[in-house]
Amino acid sequence: MPRRIDHWLAGLLLGGTLSAVEPGWSQETRPPAAREPGLAELPEKLAELVPTCLACHGENGIPNYAESPIVDGQHEGYLFVQLRDYKNGARKHEVMNEIVKDLSRNDLRALASYFNARPWPRVDQPPVADENGEVERLLAEGQCKECHGADFLGDGTMPRLAGQLTTYLVSTMRAFKLKERTNNPAMGSLLDTYSDEEIEALARYLGAL
Ligand code: HEC
Ligand code: HEC
User: Of the ligands numbered here, which is closest to the C-alpha atom of 111?
Assistant: First the structure.
């Protein structure tokens, strides 16, 4: 791991910017790959950087911090757009802005392709019984399926939401609503119309899929 990033990462983690996920989440749900898929094909600089990414996003795809999304198996187009937006500042996050700032477009493409090739992990988040159809109503009102797909699996630059960490879904939907995440203004104005309780309900439902 490059020393500068190592040092910076240690400072961040000690500073307590991120909160650890509940114990249990990081338990293995799939065996670690014998050899990381595609790591050998990455330029050396990126192969050295990937372990830093995994320190937060999870060796086995299950993030180590509640605010870190699952990126393994996420769509390549979407991953690239997010990395590009962190680099050009359209999406703001202290850690992510810093880590991609010296990378080229081709580096970002290679990272997007690498993480897309890793399998999406299964995180057992408690199932949600939508007995009175409240969540279905919220989803219909926001036409969420029209864009994210009937099973919320996304495609291309449309992110997969099914099985994403509930804690991350809450934090990013809140960020859209509060205009802290502004790289997709349409999501921001859509979530304006949802209360915090409704956002929680949507996140729990999507996380359990
Ligand atoms: C110190 C922890 C940490 C490290 C190291 C880190 N990330 Fe992140 N990453 C996060 C957090 C937290 C977020 C959510 C930030 C936000 O809300 O915008 C995030 C967001 C992302 C996203 C957006 C995903 C989505 O669903 O929108 C991508 C892609 C990503 N990281 C890839 C990487 C890659 C590639 C690396 C290594 C080059 C890396 N991350 C290193 C913590 C980290
Ligand atoms: C018009 C199409 C459209 C509709 C309708 C829509 N979305 Fe999105 N959504 C997007 C796009 C595009 C992105 C990716 C934005 C980006 O590139 O930053 C996104 C991003 C998200 C994210 C962030 C995922 C991540 O990994 O960070 C969440 C969560 C989300 N949408 C939830 C919802 C919910 C819940 C609804 C319904 C209430 C909804 N969306 C309706 C297009 C849509």
Answer: 1
Give the Å distance between the CA of 5 and the centre of ligand 2: 31
72 vs 86: CA distance, rounded Å: 18
Averaged over successive runs of 10 residues, the pLDDT of the chain (209 residues) comes to: 52 56 50 61 92 95 95 98 97 95 96 96 90 94 95 97 97 96 93 95 96
**pLDDT score for 10:** 58
Residue of 107, 97, 108, 114 whose CA lies nearest to 8: 97
- What the chain holds in terms of domains, given with CATH numbers, is 3-117 (1.10.760.10), 134-207 (1.10.760.10)
Q: Are 110 and 100 in contact (CB under 8 A)?
A: no
Name all residues whose Cβ lies below 6 A of ligand 1.
Answer: 9, 12, 18, 49, 52-53, 55-57, 65, 67-69, 71, 79, 82-83, 91, 93, 95-96, 99, 111, 159, 172, 175
pTM for the model stands at 0.90
